[in-house]
Write a structure and sequence with these properties.
By secondary structure, the chain is mostly helical. It has a domain of 124 residues. It contains 13 helices and nine strands. It has a three-stranded mixed β-sheet with strand order 2-1-9, with no helix packed on it. It has a two-stranded antiparallel ribbon with strand order 3-4. A hairpin with a 4-residue loop joins strand 1 and strand 2.
Length: 394
């Protein structure tokens, strides 16, 4: 039984690391990159199985990791659908009981339906794709000239608004780019970030609710059905010994292993999803995104390298994040994106320090960028000026 519990927790932890660890910059992030690095896996496979196998692995890497594909969307649907089938077969027959009323039968269906609806909304909602027709709507965000400066995307052939990024998987520029989510097979950007947060918190609450249901069913089985609180056994000396809580749990696990295992699995996923949601709420409170956290890390590293030799080890002061406007205002921009608000077109963009009123005619107007790779640009720590003017301002 201990091995089953440890195995369940280990599988849940690995799923969390593989699926949600990409945004982490600590140990979880390093584990995620080690477990999901197709290139590293391909090199190891090539040494073991030969070049042909390595070439096949590279093809799978390209299809699965660098092209839009619904693999994890299908996995989500199978995970949710399979879990509900197990719930229908093994848990629903125990409702109602002395601890759960009959309405929980209906609420289970409603909760699952809500999860699917939110999943499809988050998957197919436009993340904030930048086009020539809507460029003015995404250009009301100023360039700070620290981690963002006027740049031309030569793949989309458009000026890239501040806080946007060209996604190499979706092959499009996305406003207020956070990350590419394989679970949604879509980027998470300005216009679907709120749905992504709703997806996380809803499924976290759904897993907590599922855990509550399974606990109540288990308690009903233990107390009302098997009356384990009155159970006893005879020890070696023939004396009565009350059944301990661990022994009662072991008995229930042997008789109803699916009910108990799903409950534990839901609890682990609930905390994992809530932690990921809380992390994104923290990013909102700091006025940054997952993509920008890496840019700020690169900036700090650049400042450290630019420090005089005698000051190495001292704390590094980086420019203030001018996109941080306070938690409430940051949250309001997530819930009601700037691009959906009324605008006066490029006049607003020019007033706020965003893209200029006309597209740049030459590459000298703005820094060009190939789009296919969006590596952080080299930042001169000695000349970083968050409030300096840029070519798009008049």
């Amino acid at each position: 039984m201990i091995f089953v519990l440890v195995g369940t927790l280990l599988v849940a932890f690995l799923i969390y690391v593989c699926c949600f660890g990409g945004s982490s910059t600590g140990v979880i992030g390093r584990m995620h990159r080690a477990l999901t690095s197709c290139g590293c896996f391909g090199r190891c496979l090539g040494k073991i199985c030969g070049k042909r196998c390595a070439a096949a692995c590279e093809y799978v890497d390209d299809v699965c990791c660098w092209r839009p594909n619904p693999l994890l969307q299908l996995f989500y649907l199978s995970l949710m659908g399979g879990g509900f089938i197990l719930y229908y077969m093994h848990c629903l027959p125990h409702i109602p009981n002395t601890r759960l009323s009959a309405w929980h039968r209906l609420s289970s269906y409603a909760a699952m339906l809500g999860g699917f609806v939110i999943f499809f909304l988050a998957s197919f909602c436009d993340p904030g794709t930048v086009t020539s027709a809507n460029l003015h709507r995404f250009s009301t965000v100023h360039f700070d000239n620290v981690i963002y400066k006027p740049k031309m995307c030569t793949t989309c052939m458009l000026p890239r608004p501040a806080r946007s990024k060209h996604c190499v998987i979706c092959n499009k520029c996305v406003a207020r780019f956070d990350h590419h989510c394989p679970w949604l097979n879509s980027c998470v950007g300005e216009r679907n970030y709120r749905l992504f947060l709703l997806f996380l918190i809803y499924h976290s609450v759904l897993c907590f609710y599922s855990f509550f249901i399974h606990v109540q069913i288990t308690m009903s089985l233990a107390i009302d059905t098997y009356q384990l609180h009155d159970a006893y056994y005879l020890d070696a000396a023939g004396r009565r010994q009350s059944v301990s809580a661990l022994q009662a749990f072991q008995y229930l696990f042997m008789r109803h292993n699916i009910v108990v295992a799903i409950g534990i699995f839901c609890l682990v996923l609930a905390f994992a999803l809530f932690g990921f949601w809380a992390y994104h709420m923290y990013l909102i409170s700091r006025g940054t995104t997952t993509n920008e956290t890496f840019k700020w890390q690169d900036l700090r590293a650049e400042f450290k390298r630019a420090q005089p030799a005698g000051e190495r080890g001292a704390s590094v002061r980086v420019p203030v994040n001018t996109y941080n406007k306070g938690f409430l205002r940051n949250l309001s921009e997530v819930l009601y994106p700037l691009s959906l608000r009324p605008t006066a077109g490029f006049a607003d963009a020019r007033r706020h320090g965003g893209a200029m009123i006309h597209f740049p005619a030459t590459a000298s107007s703005v820094e060009c960028d190939g789009g296919a790779e969006d590596e952080p640009e080299h930042i001169d720590a000695a000349h970083a000026q968050p409030e300096s003017a840029h070519p798009h301002q008049e």
